[in-house]
């Protein structure tokens, strides 16, 4: 069996995206890419310049192990209490107790905001740009304008409401809420507004009349949260080690405000730490000061009872054993008194079940047992000596305890005065001179890269979406030869004007001149001359001298090809007739600066004679017939036998008859006319008509029995994408 020859077929369009074509597309649109990239870089520069700079300040504090200057020593260390917990100190620093006191100290719940111009207002104030004359009376604040608010008290119910202060004449100001005036105040004096809910004192208002500032009183919780969100605390040192050194950092737009806020937080933390360290000594001191008057009264009563008993017995000797017992009584009672003080201190720290608390109670029970044994031995002495011993013991023991309590009071007073806490400020707040944000260099680089990527992406996306033909090979792959490639003409672009209609806001393009007559040396006209030569040999085998020029869709340039091809043929000495068979939107008459009335539609409808529709032109040998007024049934007119008689009767009188028809995919007019002509040409526009669209038009014409002789690639551009991407065309 004889093998059928393989038919060349084009590869799928999705496989046609080559790196070379992509590179060529980028070269073709290089100025767009450069322009968009430059515009994006400019926007980045403007944004970086106008952005408010963000500064950062830091401070350094050290958390030391607790120590005291008290001569009593450090009870917590003796008892084994762990007191070095950096995490707990960080939590205290971030607590509402510390931050709230800092807010109260600095008045951070009050915000004073200038009314600024959109986008550029902050930049104007930072740069100190003075107010121009045309901005007089405007509320926006300019460089060098300020306000000093000495007092701003607002009722709790109105917190969160914006109070606007506007400069007035004669050292006065107006107060507005929601653009409604609520009163007028004098600079330097306290003003009361809103029935006492607002108290305001402005010491200075350096701005012209009309300038406005906004006053805002935040809720205390919101002010604390705002301050805490800007505070960052980290422990210095390596991972896994506890150095006790904390680094506090804070960011903001105002360098002085950052420094004041950080110092306020650090100083508040230091103050509360000292108060916390001295709280234990203060509680012990209060307990001893409460016991001292009672002990003094007990000592006085004991001395009085001893003196009365001795006076009653006149004289009595105390044995050495009794003296020893009295001395031991004093030691035991003194130790019990100390344990009582220690128990009061431990009760503030631990529960009774704590081991340290239990150890102290065991010492106390041991001393009380020894005291009971001593009392038993004393009970064996004579009655008189027992009484003297007891009275003397009461005096001596009470005196020792009282003196001990007085000594403890003095020691605790010294300890309280000497408490310095375990927090030490190493570095006070300092704000860097250079802002940490925005990073202008990074912003400009990112903006430039983003602009470049958007430009490249847009160009590539547009190229992917617009898959129109770019080379004759793409058209020939559909099975139709290309007779001519007409380059894009700048001269023709100047001859096209846009006409708007009421129903068509975008308007439509209308040919207002003939390129072949106005600029015969144009490259597009030279290409049409080559087409004229090719048609001479093609039409040798045609059944008549009728040529139909159509396209697959509007805008391909079929009317341009029809008119200028007719002119070039007439200039070559031929007698040419151009027929505008696009009775819907034909515009051949516009090229000759005439009206469409009295044309083909009237002729086919029998309203005029043929002598009235054929119009001569300024080009010798060139005649044309306009489309006429748009009829309601163009296709029916073309099917009518009168159209056939007209063509058969007048074609012999001309060397060439060129018929301009509507697009083949839009209506059936082209298929109707194509049956009556000997040569059919289809026009495709560079990068507009796709190969699939051209194939669809060819199939529709072939279905109607019309054979397309060839194609004309119109508006061809010398693009790098064509050179790089289609240096070859693959067939399968």
From TrEMBL:
Coiled coil, from the record: 271-387
Taxonomic source organism: Litchfieldella rifensis
CDD domains xref list: BY-kinase
Family under the similarity heading: Belongs to the etk/wzc family.
Gene3D superfamilies: P-loop containing nucleotide triphosphate hydrolases
Location, primary (coarse class): membrane
Membrane topology according to the record: Multi-pass membrane protein
Start and end residues of each Tyrosine-protein kinase G-rich domain: 384-463
Record keywords: ATP-binding, Cell inner membrane, Cell membrane, Coiled coil, Kinase, Membrane, Nucleotide-binding, Transferase, Transmembrane, Transmembrane helix, Tyrosine-protein kinase
UniProt domain AAA: residue ranges: 547-668
EC number: 2.7.10.2
Domain Polysaccharide chain length determinant N-terminal span(s) in chain numbering: 15-105
Protein's name according to its UniProt entry: Polysaccharide biosynthesis tyrosine autokinase
Subcellular location: Cell inner membrane
Upper classification of the organism: Bacteria, Pseudomonadati, Pseudomonadota, Gammaproteobacteria, Oceanospirillales
Bilayer-crossing regions: 31-50, 443-465
